[in-house]
Amino acid sequence: MTTTVKPPARAEWTVIALLIVLSVVPLAAGAFRLGDLATGAPVTADNARFAASPLPVVLHVLAAAPYCLLGAFQFSPTLRRRRPRWHRASGRLLVPLGLVAALSGVWMTLFYAIPAIDTGFLTVQRLVFGTAMALALVLGFVAARRREFAQHGAWMIRAYAIGMGAGTQVLTHLPWTLLVGEYDELSRALLMGAGWVVNIVVAEWVIHRTLRRPRSARRVPVRTPG
């Protein structure tokens, strides 16, 4: 008799919890920004661009928050297997949410009056990664329509990894802030870029480990008496 070893539920929920925790700081920052706009907070050099044109940042925050939180649950193979309708329904939400988050980020990079420390190399990175996220979502959607589910999963993981860059960037900035303090335009760009790069490297590792292995290697047969 042959049975299949299922991935441990505790490990899956640990991954989901870690992804949600990684989202906390950027989501809190977004909520704070929306609160400023909703309450008519005094206009400062830091928020003047948002006060002058609030729609892009409002769309960005309102799309990014559910994208990050709902997307975390897509990393549970058990949920995908046992709740296929839920997986498809949430996927239909995640694609437009991710596109709004990515494209509004690109729009803000192009048309907002960006602070000097965020210009130069960081501007290029934001445009590249924002465009890459949108492209990955489109390719993931197309792959799903073609029933190429391994490719679909790979592209959606890449898109989520880029979208979660803001969470990882908190971690890349923290050691520098504690050890060095202030950062200039170049160090700021490198620390921001490191967040995206770390996520992409992890995403490719996950893709290689879980999606590109032969199907027979994903299930470990266990021989039982009888």
TrEMBL record:
Keyword terms of this UniProt record = Membrane, Transmembrane, Transmembrane helix
Entry's Pfam families? DUF2306 (PF10067)
User: Which ranges does the record mark as transmembrane?
Assistant: 12-32, 52-73, 93-114, 126-144, 156-176, 188-207
Q: Which domain of life is it from?
A: Bacteria
Q: Coiled-coil regions in this chain? A: none
Spell out the protein name for this chain. Answer: Putative membrane protein
